[in-house]
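re: ur question from earlier - yeah i can do the single chain one, its not a big deal. heres the input i used so u can compare w yours
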Amino acid sequence: MARSTREETEETREAILSSAKRLFETKGYTRTKLTEICAAAGVTKGALFHHFNSKEALFTEIWTDLQTTMDREAAREALQVGKSSDDPYAGVIEGCRVFLDYASDPKFQQIVNIDGPGVLGEAEWSRADAAMGLRNIGGGLRHLESLGLIDPKKRKPLTVLLYGALTGAAMELSRNPDSP
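and the output i got, formated as tokens:
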């Protein structure tokens, strides 16, 4: 039996991730079967389990990648807008806008906010989500603090307040996609 090259191994892994993501987005975690993922990716169950030890591990990687992608884009856009604007608050507002754009996407909602808490568990979902969100929002508010626009004693509570408001808005959008 011939061994696959590193490139072939990575292509197989990416095919599994891509197929699973599409299925999780459209069918949800529970209704997506491993056999469907394998068929869509053109791989055997053995190949899937070579790369991921469980359906949950596969989902967790997709969830983490979506969150990380959104987090990076929000940070990048906030920084870019913040540097090009005379309004010191523009960067923070732009980061919030990017987050809400993602939170309005039904595919993102399905994986991150609808299935995420059930698959990862409420505590782990909250911990991982907060770690990213609080870091990003805190960075923007630290910048405003450095400009003298936020009292240093109020930055942390404001970070938590803004994170909570954005997370609450995202969950509302996931429960009621037609919300304005």
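The first helix runs from residue 6 to 27. not sure if urs matches, ping me
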